[in-house]
Recover the amino acids of this structure.
């Protein structure tokens, strides 16, 4: 089994869509139009290629609050595997 390297990026962008994550209770997918993917000191940034693209970020449903499409946000996130990006437990914060 291949283990993912610990990695983090500070994403900034616009929420395009929020939807329940299929098959994963208490998680939502936030589709984020990524404007920036800043480095987090001490960790490799595996999300630099997401700038200028829509990225699906899995977020704990409890951290969504009143977040809605169109909101400008920042969110610390990591690539969990080649197809999955997960937000830290605090989730996205409005800018």
């Amino acid at each position: 089994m291949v283990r993912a390297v610990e990695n983090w990026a500070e994403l900034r962008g616009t929420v395009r869509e929020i939807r329940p994550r299929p098959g994963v209770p208490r998680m939502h997918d936030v589709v984020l139009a990524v404007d920036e993917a800043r480095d987090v000191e001490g960790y490799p940034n595996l999300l630099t290629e997401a700038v200028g693209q829509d990225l699906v970020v899995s977020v704990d449903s409890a951290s969504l609050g009143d977040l809605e499409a169109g909101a400008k946000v920042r969110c610390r996130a990591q690539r969990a595997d080649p197809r999955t990006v997960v937000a830290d437990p605090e989730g996205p914060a409005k800018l």
Notes: The CA atoms of residues 11 and 37 lie 5 Å apart. Strands lie at 9-20, 27-39, 54-60, 72-81, 84-87, 93-94.
